[in-house]
C-alpha cells in the first residue's frame, strides 16, 4: 500500500512538472511586431508606446514576440519570449534602434500563422503598401505622433479585424480592453467626389483653429458606429441627415457637438481645451440657402456652397501705368499682404501652413497652375512674365475652404487670373527643315572634365570601415536635414562602395524631408532610376502626381520608367492615355508632343505577340531613324543652363535655356507643366562629338536646394545599333565649363 502511494505521488509530480514546463514555454497568443525605423519616427513619443506595450504584456502570462524592424529594408528580425510580463530584452532592443530612410510597407508580410500583428508607424510610406488577404492576422496599428496618415492607419486596422491605437487621443487602458475583447472600431467613411455626386445626403466642411485647417480631427455620428476624419487641410465629408448629431474632437481641442439642419455645409472653429468643460453644442442653420451662381476662375459655383469669401477686380481696375502683376494687385484686396516691392511671388493671403512647407498662395492663369513659392528665399517663383495689360480679371479666394475647389494647391489661398484671350498666346517660330546653327571653334582640350570628390564624399572616404562611415554620416545628418546635396552625395558614396541598401536608405530621406516638394522628389526619382530602382522611382512619380496632378512632364516620366522597368503593358496603357490627351488633370501635352511621339514609337518597336495594342493610332508604329537624339530634362521650372555641342571638327554651337534668350519658351513651359526639351540631328557630322555645360552668367549656386539636369543621349536612334547613355548632373556643382560626355556618330 505504501509503495502504491509513493507511485501515485511520483506520477502526480511528473504530471505537474510536465504541465508547468508546457505552460512556461507556450504562449497565450504569439504576436508579430513590425517596428517602423524610418527617419520620421525618430521623434515620436517613445514613452507612450513603451507604456502601451507594458500594459499589453501585463495582460499576458507567457508570450512569444517576433520583432521585425524595417525602413527601406528589413533591418533585423528577432524572437523574444516574454515570461511573467517581463519584456526588458525586447525594450532594450527597441531603445537602441537607428532611425533613417523611408518606410516600405510592402515589406510587411501578412501571410503568417500568427493571429495578431502590431504595426508601430505614422502610416506614411512612399515606397509601397501593405498587401493583405482574407487570411491575414488581426492588425493593430499604433501611432504616437501628431503628423500621421490617419486614414491609412484606420483602414488597415479596420479592414483586417483589428484596431487603430492613437496614443495621443485616448488612455491606454481603453485600447488594451478593446484589443483583448476584439471590439469593432468605429467605421470611418472617406467619401469620394464621385460618391458625393451620386448621393447628396452628405455633410461637408472645414475644421479650423481660427487660422489654419486642422488635420486628423475626429468626426463621429453620435449614437452610431460611423465617422470620418479631416484631411491634412481640415476638409471632411460624412453621410448624415437632418437631426443627426456630429461630434468633433481633436487632440488638445475642446469637443464640439453639432446638430445637422437642412444645410449640407458645416464649418467648425475648434478652440483649445483649457480645462474640462461640457462640450459646445451648436444647432446648424436650416433653410435660406443662397442659390446665387457666381463665376470663380473657369468654374460656375453656387455662392453659398463655397464656404469662403471671394474678391475680384477687372481690367477696369488695373491702371495702364502698372508695370507688373504685383503693382496691379497692390491695395486691391483686403487681407492680402504683398511682398517686398509688390512682388507677387512673396504674397501672403493668410497664415503659415507648416505641412505645406510654404505660406504663399497658388496662382492659376486661365485654369493652369503655376509653381508655388516656397518658404526659403531661393524657392521664390517669378511671375514677371504676366503682362497686366493682358489681364481680363483677377479673383482672390480667401479662407481655408478654398481647398474644396483646388485641393492641395489651394491650401494657402488661390489667385485666379483670366486673360483677355482666354489663354495665353505664344508666337510660334517659323519652322524650317533644319535648325539654323551658328558654329564657333572650341579652343580647349577635347577630353572629359575630371570630377574631383566633393566635400561630403571626401569626409566619408577617410573611414576604412563601412560601419564607421555610416556612423559619421548619421552624426553629420543632424546639421544637414535640409541639405539635398548632402543626402545625394552621401548616398552616392555607399552606392559606389557596393552598399546598395545603405545608399537607398540615405537617398530615401528626401521623400521623408520634402514630401510636398515636386522638384526634390523629381531629383530623387532621377537617382533611383540611375541606380536601377525603377519600381521605387515609379512610387515617387506617383507621389508627384498626387501632390501636383497638373504637371504633364510627370506622366511622360512615369510611362518611360515603366518602359525601362520592362513593364511594357503599363507603359503602353499610359502612353495611350497621354497621346490621346486623356489625362483628366492635364490641360495639354502639346509642349511634349515630339518627345511623346518618339518615346511611344520606340516603345512599340519592342512589341511582342502578348501586348494589348487596341485603339493605338497607326502613326505610332512607324519608328523614325536619327543619328542623334538628345533629351534634356531639368528638376525645377525655370532652370537656367547652356549646353555646347562640339562636333568632330571642334566646331561648336550652344543650345541655351535662359530667360534672357528664351523667355517666351520658358513661360510656356511653366504654364503647360513640362520641363524638358528634345534636340535631334538626322544627318550629323561623322566622328566623335562632345557635350559641355557652361555656367550661366550671374547664376548663384545653392547646394542645399540644387537644380539637376537629366540628359539622355541616343545615337543611331531607331536603328538596330541604337545606344543610350544617361547623365545626371548637379548644376550647382558646375562652376566652370564641364565636358561631361562624348559619343561617336558612324
Automatic annotation (TrEMBL):
InterPro entries recorded: CarboxyPept-like_regulatory, Plug_dom, Plug_dom_sf, TonB-dep_rcpt-like, TPR-like_helical_dom_sf, TPR_rpt, vWFA_dom_sf
Domain of life of the source: Bacteria
Subcellular locations according to the entry: Cell outer membrane
Membrane topology: Multi-pass membrane protein
Residue spans crossing the bilayer: none
SMART domains: TPR (SM00028)
Family annotation (PROSITE patterns): TONB_DEPENDENT_REC_3
Major place of residence: membrane
Domain TonB-dependent receptor plug: 303-414
UniProt keyword terms in alphabetical order: Cell outer membrane, Membrane, Receptor, Signal, Transmembrane, Transmembrane beta strand, Transport
Keyword match Metal-binding: no
Keyword Aminoacyl-tRNA synthetase: no
Homology family: Belongs to the TonB-dependent receptor family.
Protein name from the UniProt record: TonB-dependent receptor plug domain-containing protein
Taxonomic lineage: Bacteria, Pseudomonadati, Bacteroidota, Flavobacteriia, Flavobacteriales
Amino acid at each position: 500500500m505504501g509503495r502504491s502511494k509513493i507511485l501515485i505521488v511520483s506520477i502526480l509530480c511528473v504530471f505537474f512538472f510536465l504541465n508547468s514546463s508546457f505552460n512556461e514555454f507556450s504562449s497565450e497568443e504569439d504576436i508579430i511586431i513590425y517596428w517602423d525605423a524610418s527617419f520620421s519616427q525618430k521623434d515620436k513619443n517613445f514613452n507612450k508606446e513603451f507604456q502601451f506595450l507594458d500594459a499589453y504584456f501585463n495582460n499576458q502570462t507567457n508570450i512569444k514576440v517576433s520583432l521585425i524592424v524595417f525602413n527601406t529594408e528589413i533591418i533585423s528580425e528577432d524572437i523574444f519570449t516574454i515570461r511573467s510580463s517581463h519584456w526588458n530584452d525586447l525594450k532594450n532592443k527597441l531603445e537602441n534602434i537607428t532611425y533613417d530612410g523611408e518606410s516600405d510597407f510592402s515589406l510587411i508580410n501578412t501571410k503568417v500563422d500568427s493571429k495578431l500583428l502590431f504595426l508601430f508607424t505614422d502610416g506614411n510610406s512612399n515606397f509601397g503598401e501593405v498587401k493583405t488577404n482574407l487570411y491575414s492576422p488581426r492588425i493593430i496599428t499604433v501611432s504616437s505622433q501628431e503628423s500621421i496618415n490617419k486614414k491609412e492607419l484606420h483602414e488597415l486596422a479596420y479592414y483586417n479585424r483589428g484596431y487603430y491605437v492613437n496614443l495621443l487621443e485616448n488612455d491606454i487602458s481603453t485600447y488594451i480592453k478593446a484589443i483583448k475583447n476584439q471590439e469593432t472600431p468605429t467605421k470611418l467613411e472617406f467619401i469620394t467626389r464621385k460618391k458625393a455626386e451620386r448621393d447628396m445626403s452628405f455633410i461637408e466642411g472645414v475644421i479650423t483653429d481660427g487660422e489654419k485647417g486642422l488635420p486628423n480631427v475626429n468626426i463621429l455620428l453620435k449614437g452610431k458606429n460611423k465617422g470620418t476624419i479631416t484631411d491634412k487641410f481640415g476638409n471632411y465629408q460624412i453621410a448624415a441627415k437632418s437631426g443627426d448629431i456630429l461630434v468633433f474632437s481633436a487632440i488638445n481641442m475642446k469637443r464640439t457637438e453639432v446638430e445637422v439642419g437642412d444645410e449640407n455645409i458645416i464649418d467648425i472653429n475648434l478652440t483649445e481645451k483649457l480645462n474640462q468643460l461640457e462640450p459646445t453644442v451648436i444647432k446648424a442653420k436650416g433653410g435660406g440657402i443662397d442659390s446665387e451662381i457666381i463665376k470663380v476662375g473657369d468654374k460656375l459655383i453656387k455662392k453659398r456652397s463655397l464656404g469662403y469669401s471671394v474678391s475680384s477686380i477687372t481690367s477696369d481696375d488695373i491702371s495702364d501705368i502698372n508695370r507688373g502683376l504685383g503693382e496691379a494687385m497692390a491695395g486691391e484686396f483686403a487681407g492680402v499682404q504683398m511682398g517686398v516691392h509688390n512682388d507677387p511671388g512673396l504674397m501672403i493671403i493668410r497664415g503659415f501652413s507648416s505641412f505645406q512647407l510654404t505660406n504663399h498662395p497658388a496662382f492659376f492663369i486661365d485654369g493652369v497652375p503655376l509653381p508655388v513659392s516656397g518658404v526659403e528665399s531661393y524657392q521664390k517663383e517669378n511671375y514677371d512674365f504676366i503682362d497686366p495689360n493682358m489681364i481680363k480679371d483677377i479673383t482672390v479666394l480667401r479662407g481655408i475652404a478654398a481647398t474644396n475647389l483646388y485641393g492641395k494647391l489651394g491650401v494657402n489661398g488661390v489667385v485666379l487670373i483670366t486673360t483677355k484671350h482666354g489663354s495665353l498666346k505664344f508666337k510660334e517660330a517659323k519652322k524650317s527643315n533644319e535648325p539654323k546653327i551658328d558654329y564657333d571653334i572650341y579652343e580647349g582640350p577635347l577630353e572629359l572634365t575630371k570630377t574631383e570628390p566633393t566635400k561630403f564624399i571626401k569626409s566619408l572616404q577617410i573611414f576604412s570601415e563601412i560601419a564607421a562611415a555610416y556612423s559619421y554620416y548619421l552624426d553629420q545628418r543632424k546639421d544637414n536635414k535640409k541639405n539635398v546635396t548632402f543626402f545625394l552625395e552621401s548616398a552616392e558614396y555607399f552606392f559606389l562602395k557596393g552598399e546598395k541598401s545603405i545608399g537607398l536608405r540615405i537617398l530615401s530621406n528626401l521623400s521623408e524631408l520634402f514630401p510636398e516638394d515636386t522638384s526634390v522628389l523629381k531629383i530623387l526619382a532621377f537617382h533611383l532610376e540611375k541606380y536601377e530602382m525603377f519600381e521605387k522611382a515609379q512610387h515617387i512619380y506617383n507621389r508627384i502626381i498626387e501632390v501636383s496632378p497638373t504637371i504633364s512632364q510627370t506622366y511622360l516620366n512615369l510611362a518611360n520608367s515603366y518602359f525601362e522597368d520592362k513593364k511594357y503593358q503599363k507603359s503602353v496603357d499610359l502612353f495611350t492615355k497621354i497621346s490621346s490627351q486623356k489625362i483628366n488633370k492635364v490641360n495639354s501635352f502639346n509642349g511634349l508632343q515630339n518627345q511623346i511621339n518618339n518615346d511611344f514609337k520606340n516603345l512599340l518597336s519592342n512589341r511582342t505577340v502578348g501586348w494589348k495594342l487596341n485603339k493605338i493610332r497607326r502613326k505610332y508604329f512607324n519608328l523614325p531613324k536619327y543619328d542623334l537624339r538628345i533629351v534634356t530634362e531639368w528638376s525645377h521650372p525655370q532652370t537656367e543652363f547652356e549646353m555646347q555641342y562640339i562636333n568632330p571638327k571642334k566646331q561648336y554651337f550652344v543650345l541655351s535655356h535662359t530667360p534672357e534668350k528664351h523667355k517666351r519658351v520658358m513661360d510656356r513651359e511653366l504654364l503647360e507643366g513640362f520641363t524638358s526639351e528634345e534636340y535631334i540631328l538626322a544627318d550629323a557630322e561623322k566622328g566623335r562629338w562632345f557635350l559641355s555645360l557652361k555656367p550661366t552668367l550671374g547664376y548663384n549656386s545653392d547646394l542645399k536646394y540644387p537644380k539637376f539636369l537629366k540628359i539622355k543621349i541616343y545615337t543611331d536612334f531607331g536603328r538596330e545599333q541604337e545606344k543610350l547613355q544617361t547623365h545626371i548632373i548637379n548644376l550647382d556643382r558646375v562652376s566652370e565649363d564641364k565636358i561631361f560626355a562624348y559619343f561617336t556618330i558612324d
